[in-house]
Amino acid sequence: MQLFPCPFCGPRDETEFHYGGDAGNARPDGVDVPVGRWADYLYLRTNPKGTAREIWVHMNCGEFFVMERDTVTHTVLSSTALGGENAA
Amino acid sequence: MTASRLATGGSAIDRSRPIRFSFDGATVHGFAGDTIASALLAGDVAVVGRSFKYHRPRGIWGAGVEEPNALVDIGGSVPATPNTRATTEAARDGLVAKSVNATPTALADRNAFRDRFSRFIPAAFYYKTFMWPDWHMFEPRIRAMAGLGKVDTDWTSQGTADQINHHCDVLVVGAGPAGLAAARLASGAGLSVTLVDDQQRPGGSLGHRAGEIDGKPVADWIEETVAELAAAGHLVLSSTTAFGIYDHNLVGLNQRHRDGRPDTLWRVRPRQIVLATGAIERPLPFANNDLPGIMSADAALAYLRRHAVLVGRRIVIATNNDSAYEVAEALATAGAEVTLVDLRRDDTPAGPANVRLIAGRSLAAAQGRLRVQAVTLDDGTRLDADCVLVSGGWSPTIHLFGQARGKLAWSEARAAFLPGDPVDGIAVAGAAAGAVTLSEVFAGAGKAVASRGQTTTAVPRSTGPEATGGILAAWPMPGSRGRVWIDYQNDVTVKDVELAARENFVSVEHLKRYTTLGMATDQGKTSNLPGLALMAGITGRPVPEVGTTTYRPPFTPVPLESFAGARAGELMAPVRRLPLESVHRASGAVFQEYGGWLRPAHYGGNADAQRSIADEARRARRSVALFDGSTLGKIEVIGPKAAEFVDFIYYNTMSTLKPGRCRYGFMLSENGVVFDDGVLVRLDEHRFVVSCSSSHVAAVHARLEEWRQDRFGRGAVYIHNATAEMATLTVSGPNARKLLETLDLGLSLDDADLPHMAVSHGSHAGDEVRIARVSFTGDRSYEISIRADRAEPLWARLRHAGQAFDAVVIGLEALMILRAEKGFIVIGKDTDGTTLPQDLGVEGPRAKRQGEFVGRRSLFTEEASRGDRMQLVGLTVPQGEAPLPTGAHGVRRSDGRLRSQGFVTSSYQSPALGRPVALGLIERGAARHGETIDIQHLGKVSKATIAAPCAFDPAGNRLHA
């Protein structure tokens, strides 16, 4: 069982977390977004072998954060609170 | 073999405590401290099982976890467990053991004849032969013929298996010399230590191998070390196997108890793992090397010194390494006539004086039927023997290291794989790291804990004679004469590996699956390396190039019950419960699970449920109904950007809602599909309550949090899930207001002050109540929310006041009828994973809204604009017909083929209308009202007419009545 570092609660078992998708998959706003771009936002995932930047949520505290980890070795490289970077 | 118990000795047994158990129906005597295997040997029981495939007689091979043959199903006074190793299971009074794969007994197995056909059933015989017409026709009978122990399907657990989460600085696996030393040194460094060992007593090889440590006999040193660890408060667990290392060095432990309790599962998170797991002795290849009476040499020494069991009288020991010399001398001293056959001509240690040494020879074959009687050497010499001991060298127990993705390094000198490059947080010490002498062992133990702190304890010194590690590899050879076993447990011989190689299954992973080499409970503990080495020999490659199969947990079997722990029965998937559950039960409620909640389905007991439900629905329309709607989501959205936030979350514009008012709306997923529906209440400028579907509360809450944190920032919006804090009691029906007026809740119920889709506050017994006029029945309704712990008196008053109005308490089933009559949908029932808001007839926001909202772009795709989308409709049946089956398809013929044009999503008999009502999703349904279509269910076709979803009071007058 992997240990993930929640930026708020510290290292916790992976069963307490839920995967939230690729980090940096910015949402394109508006009805004029080209349909291909929108489809990429909805469905295209990078699924990298190696270093991945991902959104995770620690279900116990409810906080979302960005975690960088290696999908091959399962080494966790960093974890950062999600600060509402795209806040309107 | 004529094995026997000696009159004296045996460090593990207590002769003052005799015990008795049964094996294959016969009584076996032993002493406390015996294993099942040592007691069987003491009673000279040679045949203890039958082999997996050929039903060959098999005897005890080892003295520990490496045992491939002596598996027994145990029961009686202990929890029923199949395939238990007789070599590790403690003998106990009243235990009942049965040999595996043998009928009726191991000695007189009626399937023994199979061995005579062995030449016709090589590896993969079944797969190749029973292909036509279908393997599954033959599979059950073939599986019944092969296999190991039997599961007792009548057995039920005697309690809940404990699961313990544990943390420590250092976890030491194995309490042999390396593990004990490492634990002691770690303790001296001020670290918290957990020491686990799979045997009943600590000591490992020190329990039967000679030595002297710090000037003391090994037994004293073991005792002193364990006492010191206990005194320092460290955890020492015996009969506990570390069966797996998982991600980030989580270690799983299986702890066995002797008092009948189920095994305990430990999840340990150490900072440092020290693997002091020792090494396993390998067999030697010769024909019929699987006969009962052929044993591991080290095991024979263990039985002698621990259990005072002498395994034979005329013993031949075959070896390729130095470790058998101590065994030979000890057995001869104990009174056996011992011949030591060493493969090596030169560089052998000096033969013990009481042993006949034959150097430069190996065994060619063993003779005997139910037990070994003689062996033939490679020069043709025949030696009579009642027991043959073999030592083919030592394989370090690196399974856990391999599981942790540790790379292995081949050592030609040791003829073994050793741990290679270090893995973070894991050190390997002792024989597992290839150490031979106690000095090497202790040096390795010191290194294993050095990185974690400066120890104040001195590294133990070996002060006795040291072991030597000379070895000449003796791998199975291609073209061997006779049947040479490699894997005892899975009946794999040299010929099977040769066959696999001929058919090009040369990769180790293919070899394993084709021949079953290294499978089942044994996982190749004695057989993996000989099998790989043989494949290397056949294919002309060096052993490391052939490689090893992937090491996976568990190292030894772990009962499923132990993994399940408390998660059984009701705790398997715990339901959420209503605060008023006991009150409803007292009222005769029948409970069912709905979306994770345990809720009253209907009242009036189980007899004639359909009639109770219909009666509740009918009476609800007549006067007034009471309903416990506490499961309804109540998620508060608070903050300066709360209005902007709900606008983004909802399909409908919500920011225009006035404080004190409610609005119904949809939440969409980003792909445009309707995710949830419900009423949004605006309490004040910056405060909303999201009433989401009962079963969706957690999911909606998670979505709100995600958008809040990702898009709005932490300071602008706050979200609080108040669902469990508040109970919601619903009063619905033409007399709902009249009933509530008798309660005097301290607010005006006048329709001018509290119109439909408005919210107001009052109080009950000093607690604030929130009353929302929201209706899921189509009748005038009041949803009263109150602190969950104060709901019971309010419910009692509603019940009491209701008597004057012939009020009825309704369950969820009646509510489903009432809402279906009105055409009100349940998301996920009347919609599916393709339903867009316009499919439900809510086109306005899509057409008019300017601002951004979740799922917006997806409503304008080609798919979303298709003309033949499935749309929500009502369905009526011809007079006198029964309700449509839910899930039945609307069908039509096109190009001669029947195709679906949608399906029935909800269907009930309506008491109010006296006819069935149904909802469905039908292609282009919104434009086809009045059209009659075919409905097909299980091959039967009936008629239904498409109508508006609302079948009852379409003008909505009853909301205000």
Architecture overview:
- The complex is a heterodimer of chains A (88) and B (961).
- Chain A has 88 residues and is mainly beta.
- Chain A has a single domain (3-27, 34-81), classed as Folate-binding fold (2-Layer Sandwich).
- Helix content of chain A is 10%, strand content 41%.
- In chain A, a hairpin with a 4-residue loop joins β4 (51-58) and β5 (63-70).
- The N and C termini of chain A lie far apart (38 Å).
- With 961 residues, chain B is an alpha+beta fold.
- In chain B, 21% of the residues lie in helices and 29% in strands.
- Chain B is built from 22 helices and 52 strands.
- In chain B, the strands form 14 sheets. In chain B, strands 9, 10, 13, 14, 15, 16 and 30 form a seven-stranded mixed beta sheet that branches. Chain B has a six-stranded mixed beta sheet with strand order 43-44-45-42-36-46. Chain B has a six-stranded antiparallel beta barrel with strand order 47-50-49-48-51-52.
- In chain B, α4 (177-188) packs parallel to α5, α10 crosses α11 and α16 (609-622) packs across α21 (812-821).
- Chain B is elongated.
- The relative contact order of chain B is 0.07.
- At the A-B interface, α1 of A face α18 of B.
Secondary structure: elements and pairs:
The complex is a heterodimer of chains A (88) and B (961).
Chain A: E1 3-6, E2 10-13, E3 17-22, H1 35-43, E4 51-58, E5 63-70, E6 76-81
Antiparallel strand pairs in A: 1-2, 3-4, 4-5, 5-6
Chain B: E1 4-5, E2 14-23, E3 26-32, H1 36-42, E4 49-50, E5 57-58, E6 71-76, E7 81-85, E8 95-99, H2 125-129, H3 135-145, E9 163-173, H4 177-188, E10 193-196, E11 212-213, E12 216-217, H5 218-231, E13 235-237, E14 240-246, E15 250-255, E16 264-275, E17 279-281, E18 294-296, H6 297-307, E19 309-310, E20 314-319, H7 324-333, E21 337-342, E22 356-359, E23 363-368, E24 372-377, E25 382-384, E26 387-391, E27 394-396, H8 399-403, E28 408-411, E29 416-419, E30 426-428, H9 438-450, E31 485-487, E32 492-493, H10 494-502, H11 508-515, H12 528-539, H13 543-546, H14 560-564, E33 576-577, H15 581-586, E34 590-594, E35 597-602, H16 609-622, E36 625-628, E37 635-638, H17 642-649, E38 661-668, E39 674-684, E40 687-691, H18 697-712, E41 718-721, E42 726-732, H19 736-741, E43 759-764, E44 767-772, E45 781-787, H20 791-802, E46 808-809, H21 812-821, H22 844-848, E47 870-876, E48 889-894, E49 897-910, E50 915-923, E51 932-937, E52 940-947
Parallel strand pairs in B: 2-8, 9-10, 9-16, 10-13, 16-30, 18-26, 20-21, 20-26, 21-22, 33-35, 36-46
Antiparallel strand pairs in B: 1-19, 2-3, 4-5, 6-7, 6-8, 11-12, 14-15, 15-16, 17-27, 23-24, 24-25, 28-29, 31-32, 34-35, 36-42, 37-40, 37-41, 38-39, 39-40, 42-45, 43-44, 44-45, 47-50, 47-52, 48-49, 48-51, 49-50, 51-52
